Amino acid sequence: MYANSILAEIGLTLLQPVLKMVEKHFDKYVEFRFYGSLNDFLVPGNRHKSFKRYYFGNPTVKDLIESTGVLHPEVSLILCNGDEVTFGFRPQPFSRIACYPQFHFLPVESLLRIPLARPLKFILDVHLGKLASYLRICGFDTLYSNSFADDEIISISSAQNRVIVTRDKGILRNGKVTYGYFMRSNVPKAQLKELFYEFDMKKDVRPFSRCTYCNGLFEKVTLNDVNSLLKEGTARSYSEFYRCTSCGKVYWIGAHSKNILKIIGEFL
């Protein structure tokens, strides 16, 4: 699926000159201006400036937005001629439409979707296994499986109010997706930093509260509780232990834990 998305992006870029010629034969257009990170999805010639989008028929503003390459789950505010509108709004020809991503430092409410409860919950696609571990280390409820199908990810996201994090634009183009984010970086540590900034997650970090293997919650246990599950050297060298309430995996505070805290500290 990811490879198909890449090919689609390449094809869209190569077709831009042809599309511009065809558009001129349409009798209607809207004028778009995208702000912030939404420009990442536009062809270079349309970034950080106003541009016209020609069309025919009577499409919704969501259809028009997605025709530019921008993914609708990342749009947090739409203004049409200065008035806030929803995705189902059908703009009049020659309207001016401004689209904004999530506001990081301003408490701006939007008609597009209900704000998610904090701390956020996530569901990740098959390309983001290492990021899933990092998020769980930080204490975030994160679902991940390399067997999740796209439809399954979308269904779980809707049912459990989880943010879909993906490297596959095809998932986020599905009209059933409400909460989603396309991961720009392909480096796990940089991905974690990207999410921390995008969703202002620092205040919600709870290190060593979730199992990196299954996402279950930890409980603190004594050495006697888990002694039979440990190697002799481990039982002798460490004194602070935790057990996953879901899978039973045992964790302890040691040198590896300090390395993990160092990674987390880079983003705090």
List keywords for this structure.
single chain; 268 residues; alpha/beta; Ubiquitin-like (UB roll); 5-stranded mixed beta sheet; elongated; disordered N terminus
Given the C-alpha coordinates, what overall shape results? elongated
Helix content: 25-40%
The CATH architecture classification of the largest domain is Roll
Strand runs, count = 12
Quick gist of this model?
This protein has 268 residues and is α/β, with parallel strands linked by helices. The chain has helices spanning 2-23, 61-67, 129-137, 150-160, 169-172, 188-199, 223-226, 232-237, 255-265; strands spanning 28-34, 51-55, 77-80, 83-84, 96-100, 122-124, 142-144, 163-166, 180-182, 218-221, 241-244, 250-252. The chain contains nine helices and twelve strands.
Report on this model:
The chain has 268 residues and is an alpha/beta fold. It has 3 domains: 15-100, Beta-grasp domain (Ubiquitin-like (UB roll)), CATH 3.10.20; 124-200; 218-265, no CATH class. 32% of the residues lie in helices and 18% in strands. It is built from 9 helices and 12 strands. It has a 5-stranded mixed beta sheet with strand order 2-1-5-3-4, with no helix packed on it. Strand 8 (163-166), helix 5 (169-172) and strand 9 (180-182) form a beta-alpha-beta unit. The chain is elongated and about 80 Å long. The two termini are 34 Å apart.
